[in-house]
Amino acid sequence: MRRAAPDPVIEAQRRGPIPDDVDPAIEALVNDIIGKVADKWTMLVLEALDAHGTLRFTQLGKAVGRISQKMLTQTVRQMERDGLVRRRVHPVIPPRVDYTLTPLGRSLGAAFCGVWIWAETHHAEIERARRAFAAAEASDLTADAETP
C-alpha cells in the first residue's frame, strides 16, 4: 500500500479529546466497516486498485492473485455497495467491466496505510515476540511430556 498523506480532518479529531458518548449508529458503522475491511480480499482489492488505477475484472483478479471469480465478484460488489469502488460497464460485445477506487475508497486506503506503517515499524519486535512465545510454548510442551 502506498504511503498516503494524513487527512487533516481525521488527524485533528484524533488529537482532540475523547468524546464521553459514542453515537450507536457510528459505533455500528465502524464495527461493520472493520468487519468488511478486515477481510483480506477487500484489502487486497483496495491495494490493487490503489496501485494500478482502473482495472478490468480479469486484470483485478490477476493483481489480487489466488482469488476465485466468485469471491472477487462478491468482494467488489460489497465494495461498490459501500461506495469504495465504481463499477463501469462498457456497452461492447463481449461486455467489458472495469473498477476504479472512489475518493471514499482512496481515503480508506490512506487510513489503513497507518496500519501498514505500524507493521513496518514494529516488524522486528513482533518477530522477536513470536519467537519467544514459540520457544516458551515448546519448553512448556517438553516439561509437560517429562511430568509423570
CATH topology term? Arc Repressor Mutant, subunit A
Which strand order do you get reading across the main beta sheet?
1-3-2
Outline: extended
CATH class: Mainly Alpha
Overall structural class, as computed from helix and strand content, comes to mainly alpha
Proportion of strand residues: 5-15%
Q: Roughly how many Å is the radius of gyration?
A: 21 Å
Any overview of this molecule?
Residues 23-127 form the HTH hxlR-type domain. With 148 residues, the chain is mainly alpha-helical. It has one domain (8-146): Winged helix-like DNA-binding domain superfamily/Winged helix DNA-binding domain (Arc Repressor Mutant, subunit A). The chain has helices spanning 8-15, 24-37, 40-52, 57-64, 69-81, 103-146; strands at 55-56, 85-90, 96-101. It has a three-stranded antiparallel beta sheet. Helix 3 packs across helix 4 (57-64). The longest helix has 44 residues, at 103-146. The model has no long low-confidence stretch (mean pLDDT 87).
Q: Top keywords for this entry?
A:
transcription; 148 residues; mainly alpha; single chain; 3 strands; extended; three-stranded antiparallel beta sheet; Arc Repressor Mutant, subunit A
Summarize the structure.
It is built from 6 helices and 3 strands; from the N terminus they run αααβααββα.
Ordered list of secondary-structure elements with their pairings:
Elements: H1 8-15, H2 24-37, H3 40-52, E1 55-56, H4 57-64, H5 69-81, E2 85-90, E3 96-101, H6 103-146
Helix pairs in contact: 3-4
